């Protein structure tokens, strides 16, 4: 019971990050490999604000703000000039941005891990199971954020424009949609979600380092691919699935050392059976 | 007065010159056709006017304003609207959502609702299928949707790129009836067609485009009776 709940909450973190990958892929048609490092930016934003004596609430706000600013600036400076360039050039650039962020963080903060304790909540007993309160918070807040995102995309003018750009950029422009602006908004939203992921991450593991975002980033990318990259509900399902499997593996002594291997094996298996991911859509050929 | 004036428009794809400096104009209140074979540059012309592909040189003037430096998405609120080749409706969205997107520049929700009702009266088939996913519509219905969507922005100039493509003769007639009817409500039309006969039959004037250059122009009824046009484009 508590393993599953922990898994769900870790899954919520993966899902939040995976949403950033999947939305940017769906709308800007690129894999933003620097997305994981935005989590690191958020974690250091919290670290610095707390170290400067700021209140936890302020620190969380600063984290969201910093992540959004980084997301928008990276898109504008690194990716926008490459619009229409070969996907490979964009991919290499994204990897470059990832290393750039990590290296700059290392120059500023050093390579060693820093402790960032936001708040510790302890555990509660629900039906004889010890459940960590931060897991519960992560799960609930994560679910609320994802529900809000789903409603936003489906029901607002900007959300519909995002769907339109994702399906046919040219036709979207013919509707009068400013495609660059929609892509910028997508990066902003993805980065804000990553900021929340970094907050939840620090609630579980209260420490940050320059490479903090790498592993969660890769796992979340895996989750996005499992769910079907480009699909918003797919990213959520993929994230939760991966989180639950990770925690279950970790709780079984025989499997624990192979947890990561199991996760990636699952990716390979799913892609073998369904190359477009669980909820991925086949791109229809345009006439 | 020319509502749309294209001067020496040149467009290149890499080293290939798709448009070799073409000039034409569409006057207020006219229906003008651009006819020509596959690959003549008709769609390129349409896309470059709307800023979907960059132009190498030349100018496009709309309503007295040079527009080829204006970002494409801003042209809709100036009163230009295009039904693209291949319809390009948003396949994964509903008919209703497609129409709402057509009114993207419009922020008054009440007005959007009223306009959708009006479009559904003009295209009863769309009215019956409001909640249907656009990708599941038939080709003819998708063409109607693409046209309805383009009309949602209340254009002064409606550009249609191959509206008859892939449709049965009966539907082709219907599409052309709708264009004629819409023109009567005061909208200027620029039409690109491979179906030259149909296009000329509803047009005031026309231009013939051949491998990136305009080779002929004139009144539609004159072109309909021109021996060269007859041979090359009317299959007579």
Describe this structure in words.
The complex is a heterodimer of chains A (287) and B (236). Chain A has 287 residues and is mostly helical. Chain A has a domain at 18-211. Chain A is built from 11 helices and 4 strands, in the order ααααβββααααβααα. In chain A, the strands form 2 sheets. Chain A has a two-stranded antiparallel ribbon with strand order 1-4. Chain A has a two-stranded antiparallel sheet with strand order 2-3. In chain A, helix 2 (35-51) packs across helix 8. In chain A, 48% of the residues are buried. Chain B is α/β, with parallel strands linked by helices and 236 residues long. Chain B has one domain (2-234): Rossmann fold (3-Layer(aba) Sandwich). Chain B has helices at 42-49, 95-102, 109-122, 124-128, 139-151, 169-184, 196-202, 220-224, 227-234, and strands at residues 2-13, 16-27, 31-35, 57-62, 65-66, 80-83, 157-161, 188-193, 205-210, 213-219. In chain B, strands 6-7-8-3-9-10 form a 6-stranded mixed β-sheet, with helices on both faces. In chain B, strands 2-1-4-5 form a 4-stranded antiparallel β-sheet, covered by helices on one side. In chain B, helix 2 packs parallel to helix 5 (139-151). Chain B starts with a strand and ends with a helix. The model of chain B has no long low-confidence stretch (mean pLDDT 94). The A-B interface holds A 157, 160-161, 163-164, 167-168, 170-179, 281, 284, 286-287 and B 47, 50-52, 71-77, 81-82, 84, 86-93, 97, 100-102, 104-105, 107, 135, 149-150, 153, 166.
Q: What are the secondary-structure elements of chain B, in order, as H or E? A: EEEHEEEHHHHEHEHEEHH
Main beta sheet of chain A, described? 2 strands, antiparallel
What is the CATH homologous superfamily assignment of chain B?
P-loop containing nucleotide triphosphate hydrolases
**Helix content range of the residues of chain B, please?**
25-40%
Radius of gyration of chain A in whole Å, from Cα? 19 Å
Q: What is the third-level CATH name, the topology of chain B?
A: Rossmann fold
Uncertain segments of chain A: none
| Secondary structure: helix percent of chain A | over 70%
Note the quaternary state here. Answer: heterodimer
* Number of discrete helical segments of chain B: 9
Q: For the terminal residues of chain B, how far apart are their CA atoms? A: 35 Å
Q: What is the level 1 CATH name of chain B?
A: Alpha Beta
Largest interface: A-B, 21 and 34 residues
Indicate the structural class of chain A.
Answer: mainly alpha
Shape of chain A: globular
Largest sheet of chain B: 6 strands, mixed
The helix tally of chain A amounts to: 11
């Amino acid at each position: 019971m508590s393993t599953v709940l922990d898994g769900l909450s870790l899954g919520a973190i993966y899902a939040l990050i995976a949403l950033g990958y999947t939305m940017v892929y769906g709308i800007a048609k690129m894999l933003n490999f620097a997305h994981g490092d935005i989590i690191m930016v958020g974690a250091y934003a919290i670290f610095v604000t707390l170290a400067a004596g700021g209140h936890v609430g302020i620190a969380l706000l600063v984290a969201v703000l910093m992540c959004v600013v980084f997301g928008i600036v990276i898109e504008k400076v690194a990716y926008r000039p490459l619009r229409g360039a070969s996907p490979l050039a964009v991919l290499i650039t994204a990897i470059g941005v990832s290393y750039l962020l990590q290296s700059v963080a290392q120059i500023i903060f050093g390579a060693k891990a820093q402790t960032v304790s936001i708040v510790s909540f302890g555990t509660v007993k629900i039906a004889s199971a010890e459940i960590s309160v931060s897991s519960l918070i992560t799960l609930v807040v994560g679910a609320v954020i994802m529900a809000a995102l789903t409603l936003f995309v489906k029901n607002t003018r900007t959300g519909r424009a995002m769907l339109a750009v994702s399906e046919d950029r040219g036709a979207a422009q013919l509707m009068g949609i400013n495609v660059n602006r929609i892509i910028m908004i997508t990066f902003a939203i993805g980065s804000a979600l990553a900021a929340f992921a970094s907050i939840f991450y620090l609630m579980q593991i209260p420490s940050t380092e320059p490479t903090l975002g790498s592993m969660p980033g890769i796992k979340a990318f895996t989750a996005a691919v499992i769910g079907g990259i480009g699909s918003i509900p797919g990213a959520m399902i993929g994230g939760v699935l991966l989180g639950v499997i990770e925690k279950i593996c970790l709780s079984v002594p025989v499997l624990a050392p192979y947890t990561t291997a199991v996760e990636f094996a699952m990716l390979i298996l799913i892609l073998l059976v369904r190359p477009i991911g669980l909820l991925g859509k086949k791109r229809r050929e345009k006439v | 007065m020319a509502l749309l004036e294209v001067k020496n428009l040149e467009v290149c794809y890499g080293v290939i010159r798709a448009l070799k400096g073409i000039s034409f104009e569409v006057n207020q209140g006219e229906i003008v056709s651009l006819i020509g074979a596959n690959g003549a540059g008709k769609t390129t012309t349409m896309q470059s006017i709307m800023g979907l592909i960059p132009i190498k040189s030349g100018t496009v003037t709309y309503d007295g304003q040079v527009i080829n430096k204006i970002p494409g998405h801003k042209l809709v609120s100036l009163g230009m609207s295009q039904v693209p080749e291949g319809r390009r409706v948003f396949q994964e969205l509903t008919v209703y959502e497609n129409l709402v997107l057509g009114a993207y520049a419009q922020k008054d929700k009440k007005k959007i609702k009223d306009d959708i009702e009006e479009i559904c009266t003009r295209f009863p088939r769309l009215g019956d299928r409001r909640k249907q996913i656009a990708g599941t519509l038939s080709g003819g219905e998708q063409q109607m949707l693409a046209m309805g969507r383009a009309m949602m922005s209340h254009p002064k100039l409606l550009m249609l790129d191959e509206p008859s493509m892939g449709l049965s003769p009966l539907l082709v007639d219907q599409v052309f009836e709708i264009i004629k009817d819409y023109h009567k409500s005061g909208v200027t039309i620029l039409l690109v067609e491979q179906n030259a006969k149909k296009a000329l039959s509803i047009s005031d004037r026309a231009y013939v485009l051949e491998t990136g250059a305009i080779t002929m122009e004139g009144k539609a009824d004159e072109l309909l009776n021109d021996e060269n046009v007859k041979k090359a484009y009317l299959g007579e």
